[in-house]
Amino acid sequence: MGINQQQLIAQFPILKQQINKYPLVYFDNAATTQKPQMVIDRISSYYTSFNSNIHRGVHKLSQKATAAYEQTRIHVKDFINASSSKEIIFTKGTTDSINLLAFSFGETFIKEGDEIIVTELEHHSNIVPWQMLCERKKAKLHVIPVNDKGELLLDKYADLLNKRTRLVAIAHVSNALGTLNPVKEIIDLAHQNKSLVLIDGAQAVAHLKVDVQELDCDFYAFSSHKMYGPMGIGVLYGKKDLLEQLQPYQGGGEMIESVSFEKTTYNELPFKFEAGTPNVADVLGLEASIEFIQKEGIENLAAIENEVLNYATAEFQKIDRIQIVGTAQNKASVLSFLIDGIHPYDVGTILNQFGIAVRTGNHCAEPIMKRLGIRGTIRASFACYNTKEEIDRMVRAIHKTIEMFG
Ligand code: PMP
Prior knowledge:
The chain is an alpha/beta fold. Helix content is 40%, strand content 17%. The protein binds 4'-deoxy-4'-aminopyridoxal-5'-phosphate.
C-alpha cells in the first residue's frame, strides 16, 4: 500500500470508540462515511471565527465567508475537472441535485411522448424524480436491465435509445451491489443518439478519479457526506451551455437579477440555481474533504479499498452458506451478501453485538432486489480506514452467527 494506513485511520476521531465492548468496525460507508478531524475543524472554525451571510455583505466577516465559499466552488471544479466554476451548483446532496435537474430539465426540454432511460440498478433517488417528471409531462420511463451478476445489458440499452430519448440517468457505481458501470461507453452511445446523460456519482467520487470533461457527461451529481465531508451539502455539475438554458428550480433571494411584480429576471450561473441562504459551513467542510482526499491521493485510497474488497470477497467465498449478491467483473467498495437460512436483519443485529456496523435491507434500491428475487441483503461497504483485520473479525463473527442460528 502506498500510504501509512495507521496514520490515515488516526485522523478519524469517531473510529477510536468501542461498541458493545469491541473496537468499532465501520462497514456502512455507502450510507455515509466518517469525517476526518480536518473536516470537523473547518466547520467549527467557520462558526467560531467568520460565520456570516454571503454575497451581500460589505463587512469583513461576510467578505471572508463569501471568498471561502466561492473558493470552494473553484476547488470542486478542479476536483472533477469541470471547465468553469459556473458549472458547479451547490445543493443539499445527490437527491437534491437530481430533483433539481428533473424539474429544471423537465420544464425546459420534456414534452409529451419524450423518453427517459434509467437502469434496473438505480437508487430510488435516481428513479422517483424521473417517474414524477414522466407523470407530469406524460413522458415515458424506460429501464436498462441487468444480468444475474448485476451488470448492465448494453445491447438492450442500445435497443432502447431512439429519437425520443432525451436523457439517460445512470449510477456511476451501484450502492446496492457495487457494480462499476461502463459510463463512458453509455455516454458515447447516448451522444451518438443526441441524448443527454446524468451520472449519479454518489458512490463514485470518494473511490475513483472523476473527470467530467473526459467522461463528457452532461450532468454529474454527488453528495459530500459519502466522501468524508459533512451531510446536507452536495453538487450538481452541468455543462454551462445546458445549465444556461434550464429553468430555475426554486425562486427566492440570490437567484434573481431583478424583481418586480411585472417581471422578474434571473441571476447568472451558478446563482440562478442557488436560491436562499446557502449552507456555507458545510460547503467549507466539503472543501476540507476534497483536501483530505487530495492530500492522501485518491489512487491510494482506492488501492486500500480494492484490497479490502478483494480480500473480503475471497474470504466469503470460503464460507458455504454465504451467497455474494452482485458479482460484476468491475466493482467498487461494496460487498452485498446473504447467509443461507438466516434473515439479513438477524445477521446485522449479531454483527452489531460484535461492534461491526453493516447495513441490511433493500438499500433504497427495491427494483434491483426484485429483479434478483430477494427482499434485501447484508451490505458491507468499505472506505480508506478499513482493514483486512476488520474483515477477519467480520468473518469470525459470521461463523459465530451461523453457529448460533444453526
Ligand atoms: N444515489 C446513490 C447511488 C446513492 O448511494 C445515494 C445514497 N445512498 C443517493 C443517490 C442519495 O444520496 P443522498 O441521500 O446523499 O442524497
